[in-house]
């Protein structure tokens, strides 16, 4: 074990679960008759960031996406939410690591996300959110990674300091921001790579994942 680290933060999408934006775009295309590439290119990323910061209601988010598409647009709200749910995929093998580490470290979630995916999908479908010692969600605190403030808040809420925290994310810019705040960072690329990096940092030393 790494005696310096007391708290480990996991990102969710791309680390603990698969995400499938192409399935969302495909469903929206099927519902509207608009080509997938058009939907993808017009997807309002700036508004999406505001939604993930909790600045938009679910209704406002739907209306923003509908408005971004070629008009007149026939997209129904029920069809939109069906498409939105398709973004959330299956659990990844890395959840095995989270479960094992929980016996030795304080384990938290730190994710840019939205209330629909958390409350209607992730909390209902998966066990790992209920195993975590705490959760830092962007829509709850009004901040998104890679804003340095979110890492400082995360460490504080975990009753720790950045230098005693490790952060795992599939987006390199988020890892770099965490490291610049004082965290140890791991850029997630695969289950096997994550194991190797955790052994290198001493996190998995003397811990058998498959007992």
Description:
With 211 residues, this protein is α/β, with parallel strands linked by helices. It has two domains: 7-19 and 91-200, 3-Layer(aba) Sandwich (Rossmann fold), CATH 3.40.50.1000; 21-86, Putative phosphatase, domain 2 (DNA polymerase, domain 1, Orthogonal Bundle). It is built from twelve helices and seven strands. The protein has a five-stranded parallel β-sheet, sandwiched between helices. α11 (172-181) links the parallel β6 (165-169) and β7 (184-187). The longest helix is centred in the first third of the chain and has 12 residues, at 21-32. The model has no long low-confidence stretch (mean pLDDT 95).
Mean of all residue-level pLDDT scores: 95
Spans of at least 5 consecutive residues whose pLDDT stays below 50 are: none
Category from helices, strands and their pairing: alpha/beta
CATH architecture of the largest domain: 3-Layer(aba) Sandwich
Q: Remind me, CATH topology of the largest domain? A: Rossmann fold
Helix content: 40-55%
Neighbour order of strands in the largest sheet: 5-4-1-6-7
For the record, the count of structural domains works out to 2
Beta strands, count: 7
Range of strand content: 5-15%
For the record, what is the CATH homologous superfamily label of the largest domain? HAD superfamily/HAD-like
Major beta sheet summary: 5 strands, parallel
| CATH class membership of the largest domain | Alpha Beta
Helix count? 12
Task: Note the gap between the termini.
Answer: 16 Å
**CA radius of gyration:** 18 Å
